[in-house]
Design a protein that fits this description.
binds molybdenum atom, Sulfite Oxidase, Chain A, domain 2, Immunoglobulin-like, mainly beta, binds the ligand Nc1nc2c(c(=O)[nH]1)N[C@H]1C(S)=C(S)[C@@H](COP(=O)(O)O)O[C@H]1N2, single chain
């Protein structure tokens, strides 16, 4: 460079050459403001999601909330109903926690009969990881003095959907946060500005954005998003409900679907993400021969509970066709299942909590594609098209 560079900027942006690194808004939305925008996991490294790329899932758009007008109310089965402005809340002791948020509908294209042609992030990118800073909800509940009969909290958002959902009091008293900051700056409007609930390790839908009300109750609300949606219909005809914790999952982000190994045979690095709502990831195994043999990947430390954990392993690609898989094991001993095992247990009407092992096939010409296991019998030809909801 022989000439002076550009001026200072008040708020930095990625290089103009990185314009393709963007969220992917869901197509085929029935309503313009209801849907998702996926995080481009395949275009990112490390384990923290930049704020502008955190996935978005809204049921009726992003409300514009003036923080000076916003209030949070805690009432119901409490001794002292309380109301807080954002300024009131900022005087409380803050706590930061890095954790992932994952939509229960993440990866549910895996229920489809045909493998998804989408890039890894535009198929599995309803998960992101950030450092959330806010007030432990237990502090506010102690101040309100919750009744012994209290079992549930009904959390309500200030969006036009007026999202409401029930949260067990134990989780609220354990590690729930009323978050104000996301990766050091105030939460982005898309992710809940000025306030959201963060329930580390629990299903995305419980992390109520634009939080305005917590009603302490002895029973759940039986709201739309815990009855008709975010429950999983099983082959028995019964549905699982209140499936809060996200089970262990992993995904190779590079190389992954849609990429091309342009340089031909030789040494590559396999890199991916693993996470579990149960605590820490203990081990990630990687196979390059469709699951016949496995090797243990290196986990990037520090391995944090309920957070995205980066794993990496070198791979010498011989040039022939090869099927890459990753398999997460968490500290409870839970092992990420193969797709046929998940489908045998859960059927294909469930839509939510799809966490099966993912296969990427590297073809001889270096093209990478999503495939299902060769031996898998498509014995359940229901032909469902999974949705993000
Ligand atoms: N108020 C409100 N909160 C909400 C939602 C919503 O539509 N309205 N969507 C929920 C769902 S389904 C998910 S997966 C997460 C997504 O959080 P994010 O958009 O910050 O990634 O927010 C949850 N909280
Ligand atoms: Mo969700």
């Amino acid at each position: 460079m022989k000439v002076p560079g550009k001026e200072f900027t008040p708020y930095g942006k990625p290089s103009e050459y990185e314009a393709d690194v963007s969220r992917f808004p869901s197509p085929n939305r029935v309503m313009r403001n209801s849907g998702v925008a996926w995080t481009p996991l395949h275009l990112l490294e490390g384990s923290i999601t930049p704020n502008g790329l955190h996935f978005e899932r809204h049921h009726n758009g992003v409300p514009q909330i003036d923080p000076d007008q916003h209030e949070l109310m805690i009432h119901g089965l409490v001794k002292h109903p309380l109301k807080f402005t954002v300024d009131n809340l900022l005087r409380y002791p803050l706590r930061s926690q890095i954790c992932f948020i994952e939509c229960g509908g993440n990866s549910n294209a895996g229920f489809n009969k045909q493998p998804s042609r989408a890039a890894a992030g535009y198929f599995h990118g309803m998960v992101s990881c950030a450092e959330w800073t806010g007030i432990p909800l237990s502090i506010l509940l102690h101040e309100a003095g919750i009744d012994k009969k209290a079992k549930w909290l009904i959390a309500e958002g200030g969006d036009a959907f007026v999202m409401n959902i029930s949260i067990p009091v134990e989780k609220a008293m354990d590690d729930a946060i009323v978050a104000l900051y996301q990766n050091g700056e105030r939460i982005r409007p898309e992710n809940g500005y000025p306030l959201r609930l963060v329930l580390p390790g629990w299903e995305g839908v419980l992390n109520v954005k634009w939080l305005r009300r917590l009603t302490v109750s002895d029973s759940p609300a039986m709201a739309r998003n815990e009855t008709s949606k975010y429950t999983e219909l099983l082959p028995s005809g019964k549905a699982r409900q209140f499936t809060f914790e996200m089970e262990a999952k992993s995904l190779i982000t590079s190389p992954s679907s849609g990429m091309v190994l342009k340089d031909g045979p030789g040494l590559y690095q396999i890199s991916g993400l693993a996470w579990t709502g149960s605590g820490k990831i203990k081990q990630v195994d990687v196979s390059t021969d469709g699951g016949r043999s496995w090797a243990q990947a290196e986990l990037q430390g520090p391995v944090l509970p309920k957070s995205l954990t980066r794993f990496r392993i070198p791979w010498h690609w011989q040039g022939g066709p090869s099927i890459l898989k990753s398999r997460a094991i968490d500290e409870t001993g839970y092992i990420q299942p193969e797709r046929e095992v998940l489908l045998a247990n859960r059927g294909r009407h469930g839509f939510f909590h799809y966490n099966a092992i993912v296969n990427w096939e590297v073809e001889s010409d270096g093209n990478v594609n999503h495939v299902y296991n060769r031996n898998e019998k498509e014995n359940n030809n229901l032909g469902l098209d999974a949705s993000w909801d």
